Amino acid sequence: MIIYLRNLLTCGSNLRGPKGIITSPNYPVQYENNAHCVWVITAMDPEKILLPLIETVGSTMRQQKMLPNRLCFINTYTYPNPKPTLTVIKLAFEEFDLERAYDTLTVGDGGKIGDARRVLYVLTGSSVPDLIVSMSNQMWLHLQSDDTIGSQGFKAVYEEIEKGGCGDPGVPAYGKRTGDHFLHGDVLTFECQAAFELVGERTISCQQNNQWSGNKPSCVCKSHFLKCMIIINMLAFRMINVSPL
């Protein structure tokens, strides 16, 4: 069997933290057929730790008064008894549209591309995926399309977060959430505004594999459409008229 590769589009890149954006080729215009794109995301430096800025006074060290954003990376050997902060990768999709079943985006953990044992998700279709968090300081994405019919593609934001959590899954539109901690074992509970019905899991927990036990639910109109529109407009009016503290 002869395989012709001359029309195969190869793309992708090696990316580093702490934060960035990944898009499919040509986004928001349709990506090419026969695309084979690989992105590898690596945390900036897993050997470093995040500590408050310090200054030396005589032979002693004292912590400066913390100011906004006044943090610095210090190698572990420069601070007595340091506590290392291991980092993992959080991937949040803003847009997603691949030809269902024929074009796929595989998301895996670690730096070994294509290892079936490290695959986290195989994504396709037009539903925006929920938050994905790696187990290690590396994550890889592999976009593969066939030779017909492309779609808009995807846009995602990656960010380094501290290991031991699942990341903030957000709050559903026209809903609210109880719980503001996202570490292993933490539980979040969701509910919807009046006239809206919860679709999905009401309660999810952060598991040891850094994934939530369920996807973030959504709130859909369960009453007369006009009643829902009135509530939506009221919520929007409140947001516009909220004055800063």
UniProtKB/TrEMBL annotation:
Keywords: Disulfide bond, Hydrolase, Protease, Serine protease, Sushi. Residues 11-161 form the CUB domain. It comes from the Eukaryota. Disulfide bonds join C192-C219. GO terms for cellular component: extracellular space. Residues 164-221 form the Sushi domain. Pfam families: CUB, Sushi. GO terms for molecular function: serine-type endopeptidase activity. The keyword Electron transport does not apply. This is CUB and sushi domain-containing protein 1-like. It comes from Sinocyclocheilus anshuiensis. The gene is LOC107660234.
